[in-house]
Write a structure and sequence with these properties.
Elements (H helix, E strand, L loop, with lengths): L1 H9 L4 H11 L4 H22 L3 H23 L5 H21 L2 H22 L1 H33 L19 H19 L2 H4 L1
Helix pairs in contact: 1-2, 3-4, 4-5, 5-6, 5-7, 5-8, 6-7
């Protein structure tokens, strides 16, 4: 690594030198390790959901994977500390598991609950107490949205639909009752806005 850094320093000034220098020096930046870990986890999740035929969830995770790659490129181009980049990463790390939990059944979505604890611990260790508290609040808000949505959906279903129809009682959801990708993507921006306003409500409260 030291030889690569010396090579980057010997290049003529310009974009190439800044790019290679950013790549070789980012191993000291905690955002770099976080970005690589995030890319690996989201990539494995995409493969898993494609393999288990949860195509809509896999598409959403694929879009998030593109976002993760864009964050890594941003980090390489501008390796200095950037609170906006960290905040966007935190919103994505909490918002995407929350959206997946709302779209999946309890058994399939259970592993996403553990991601909340992982995100809280990771941000606290890497970036300090402020990010630990922010991650904890966002995770509590996200999980609260999931629990509230599930309770409301069950209540509305019992009030408006009556007893459970026998054709919906099996382990597989009928095709006409499944959430399609365009419905999921339409709800995702609203979820992100709710997360932001839950942490910083001043734009609508002042």
């Amino acid at each position: 690594m030291a030889a690569t850094e010396r090579f980057a320093d010997q290049l003529p000034p310009g974009r190439l030198q800044r790019l290679i220098g950013g790549i070789t020096r980012n191993h000291h930046n905690p955002e770099y390790a976080q970005g690589i870990t995030r890319f690996a986890v989201v990539g494995l999740a995409c493969l898993y959901f494609y393999a288990t035929h949860h195509a809509d969830i896999a598409r959403v995770l694929t879009l998030y994977l593109v976002f993760v790659l864009a964050m890594l490129v941003w980090l390489v181009v501008a390796p200095q500390q950037n609170h906006l980049r960290r905040t966007l990463g935190l919103i994505g790390d909490v918002g995407v598991p929350t959206a997946c939990l709302m779209a999946l059944d309890a058994e399939t979505g259970a592993p996403f609950v553990a991601l909340y604890l992982w995100v809280i611990t990771g941000y606290g260790i890497r970036f300090g107490v402020r990010y630990l508290l922010a991650a904890a609040m966002l995770s509590a808000l996200g999980f609260g949205l999931v629990v509230t949505a599930m309770a409301l959906l069950q209540m509305y279903g019992r009030i408006f639909n009556g007893p459970l129809n026998s054709r919906w009682a099996g382990p597989q959801t009928p095709p006409d009752m499944q959430i399609v990708s365009r419905e999921f993507l339409a709800a995702a921006p609203l979820l992100v806005v709710l997360l932001i306003l839950g942490v910083y409500p001043a734009p609508i409260m002042d």
